[in-house]
Design brief:
Length: 395
């Protein structure tokens, strides 16, 4: 199998076949290299490895064959040159910022970002003189206006969580290019099975592998994908010194999970679409947020930019917080958890959990009402998910 073959492969084939070269043992499933360090044939070889004159393993904080196999596979799926695997999604974002931003520089970010990302920017990067401005993700003029001469990075998630707003990645990439900024996309919700931001001009993709990539709620992990210099040298350099490396065991779980990623994402999407259409027909539901619905304001953009509409949806129930809590508490099968991207369908009330730390005004501005409920559609029979929600909406 040559690299030339790989270039013609689709995303699902890459997820199954790229990376994980067979060892002389002839194993069909790639092994876990559970070793912290590697031995050298001679003092001279050790010196050459340390000096960078000879490629090869030294220590698993730097490189490990199982971690490398996962990274090669994910990079191929995203269409990026290289991937650095990290201990968690947050360490992927931290490593990217530490590697690519200097004191006094500035980030423009969507105000809809994952809460811990906002916390990292505001509470930690700010202490080192890196500041962040927030804009509405879909307002391209707001992105342009927020850019200053110090801006180095635009940071976005699309679809957004929990309202599934879609950002035009090609348009945002153009704004980044025109202003000499890097566009970083957190592709956690779609995964490369449904969306490959680098094809639209993004410079860097970051992942929480903890969510749909694992897809079964087992391991924490993350990844940074991009070109050989930006990611392969700079982000890798931070990881090598900073130590937020992925463990070989977790890499093995994710490597195997990538083999089923595309079929799982298609199944999550099919379930979410059925749920969204059913919810839209319920009198107790005021509004449904799902890019696969014709009523979604960026339905056509999502259809153009994504290969599927994804597993996440939200809806407003009539009656505010009490009605939302009643619905959540009436379910017997769904998991009440803020986590997402699992085989098991999860349900959560954003206003009092994931978004409880922002003020009521900020929540209102972001469109996160008291009646809003978010679901991450799992892989159960969708009839059983509907049957679990039905009594709470009828009440
Ligand atoms: C969960 C999540 C993260 C953080 O990932 P961890 O693996 O929990 O560190 C980052 N971005 C998004 C969009 C997430 O949902």
């Amino acid at each position: 199998m040559s690299n030339n073959d790989q270039n013609h492969w689709g995303t699902a084939t890459r997820g199954v076949r790229v990376g994980a070269e067979r060892t002389p043992e002839g194993e069909h499933s790639f092994p876990i290299y559970a070793t912290s360090s590697f031995v050298f044939e001679s003092a001279a070889q050790a010196a050459a490895r340390f000096g960078g004159d000879e490629p090869g393993n030294i220590y698993s904080r730097f490189t490990n064959p199982t971690v490398r196999a996962f990274g090669e596979r994910l990079a191929a799926m995203e269409g990026g040159e290289t991937c650095v695997a990290t201990a968690s999604g947050m360490s992927a974002i931290l490593s990217t910022c530490l590697a690519l931003l200097n004191q006094g520089e500035h980030i423009v970010a969507a105000h809809t970002l994952f809460g811990s990302t906002i916390g990292l920017f505001n509470n930690h990067l700010a202490r080192f003189g890196v500041t962040t401005s927030y804009v509405s993700p879909t307002d391209l003029d707001a992105w342009r206006e927020a850019i200053t001469p110090a801006t180095r990075m635009l940071f976005v998630e699309t679809p957004s969580n929990p309202l599934t707003e879609i950002v035009d990645l090609a348009a945002l990439a153009e704004i980044a290019r025109d202003n000499g900024c890097l566009l970083v996309v957190d592709n956690c919700f779609c995964t490369p099975a449904l969306q490959r931001p680098i094809e639209f001009g993004a410079d860097i993709v970051v992942h929480s592998a903890t969510k749909f990539i694992d897809g079964q709620g087992r391991c924490l992990g993350g990844a940074v994908i991009g070109d050989a210099e930006t990611v392969g040298e700079k982000v890798f350099g931070i990881l090598r010194s900073g130590g937020a490396s992925m463990s070989p065991f977790n890499a093995w779980v994710f490597l195997k999970a990538l083999e089923t990623l595309e079929v799982r994402m298609r199944a999550h999407t099919a379930a979410a679409q059925t749920l969204a259409e059913w919810l839209e027909a319920q009198p107790a539901v005021e509004r449904v947020y799902y890019p696969g619905l014709a009523s979604h304001p960026q339905h056509e953009l999502a259809a153009r930019q994504q290969d599927g509409f994804g597993g996440l949806l939200s809806f407003d129930v009539r009656g505010g917080r009490d009605a939302a809590w009643r619905l959540i508490d009436s379910t017997r099968m769904l998991s009440i958890t803020a986590n997402l991207g699992d085989t098991r369908t999860t349900i959560v009330h954003p206003a009092t959990t994931t978004h409880s730390r922002i003020s009521a005004e900020e929540r209102a501005r972001a469109g996160i009402g008291d009646g809003l409920v978010r679901i991450s559609a799992g892989l159960e029979n969708v009839e059983d998910i509907i049957a679990d929600l039905e009594p709470g909406l009828a009440a």
